[in-house]
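Students often ask why we bother encoding 3D structure as a string. The short answer is that it lets us treat folding as translation between two languages. Here is a chain of 117 residues written in the first language.
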Amino acid sequence: QVQLVESGGGLVQAGGSLRLSCAASGSIFSSNVMGWYRQAPGKQRELVATVTSGGSTNYADSVKGRFTISRDNAKNTAYLQMNSLKSEDTAVYYCNLRSPGYTMNYWGKGTLVTVSS
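And here it is in the second language, the structure alphabet:
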């Protein structure tokens, strides 16, 4: 089993920044993809960004140029630096860790990010 614990959410004004962290523990497999997803009220969960254990990244178009995903493999931790936040970024942000083929797929409980306009 893998446990994921997110931190760093909170209330921020539009244009501000936040940094989310996701600490993974347990039986972590070496080849994996860590990612951030978000779910706004009344909407489906959507991809924000992913990073592979090799460092390759992928971003949703809506956050490109504003958000940066990174990871520290030694600490089994992923980060999401969010800059130039907009009200539409308000959502619960979930950390995800999965195997490349999705045979193993784990979620954190989420952290709320609220951007006030």
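Translate back mentally: The CA atoms of residues 10 and 58 lie 24 Å apart. Keep this in mind for the problem set.
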